[in-house]
Amino acid sequence: MAESVSASLVQEKTAVVKEIKPRKRALLPLGKIFSLFSALLVFIGVYKSINLLSLMGYFLLLALFFNAVFASRRLRNVAVKRYFPDQLYAGVPSVYQIEVYNVENKIIPPWYLLDASSDRGKGWAIPSLGAYVRYYLQSRILPLHRGYLELAKLELRGSYPFGLVQKRVWAEQKEKVLVLPKLGLSRPGSLESFIAKLSTLDDNGNISSFHPLAQEEFHGLRVYRPGDSPRAIHWRTSARRGELMVREFEDFPGDDLLLVLDLGIGNNIELESFISFAATVVHDYCRVRGNRMVVVLVAEEVVVFDARADYAFGVKVLQHLAVANACASVFEYRNACIKAANLLENITLPPATLALRRNNGTDLFEPLKDRLVPSLDAKTAREKGFYEPPSLAEEA
What's the pLDDT band for 174 if we cut at 50, 70, 90? Predict the structure, then answer.
């Protein structure tokens, strides 16, 4: 049963769009009527020995043949390509552009473009394209699962000049695009408060008492730089000088964070829920913050990220989560934990630490137990009121 569920999830993650190719050349409704009328004229002309009707019938059949030959005239000179300006998230409609480019110094007659991956079922009617002219279209797509999405080939249809026979031409290559995991909703500031409280626990699990100003050593003021924490801005001085000034500190132990994403063992539906929870935490923490963040991904492929928590950093982590798989066995999981511990040995770790784990994750985190005391899962986060899974978020 578990193997069948795992196999179905693998098929969903690849999310291959099945492309059913129709015939390259087909009669349009008007072409069918035209051909029947032509055949009728030829039959009557031959049967009644009326040469004029026979000649008209043959002439109409010749026009039908001429349209079939030249229906896709110069469509091979059209280059089409999709552009995705923003990251794609599973379950979220996204807008993208299609570039149409005439690569030859010849005018291309009107034609039709169809994208089976788009939610636009009728496609687009493209006017005549002049020499080296670019034409842009806008469409939407709704990816359902994380991972690489293989898009259908773009289809070009031509029926010029008479509109009797339609000929189809497909783009040379298929395209792949990475879809990031589904995101839930989190209450702003609640997770930071949770992490700050956990970071003050001593070895016995008790809250240490300290003076608030003892966390940081103030050095002075300097000009704001991209990546600085907005909380460090000194607004009075900034207003007086007309530019943003920030306080310069030795350390922010409550803001810098070591986050471990433990995917556990086995690929199933629960793993997808956990990845959505982990992606939500990383996305929200990196959205407005500029503090240091170390992320350890304990999975089939162990990865460590260490940089300032900003949008680009968050996208980089989510891109790895989009294609991540859990370990297949206990042996593989233990090796992943040991590898993660070895990668952390040469890194100066932030004082605040949090491990995100699956609900059914077994207690096999020995190599990192000393560093990672506090842990959190999606169920606990939901019970504490600062996380809603994607399904509930969509209903709200």
Answer: confident
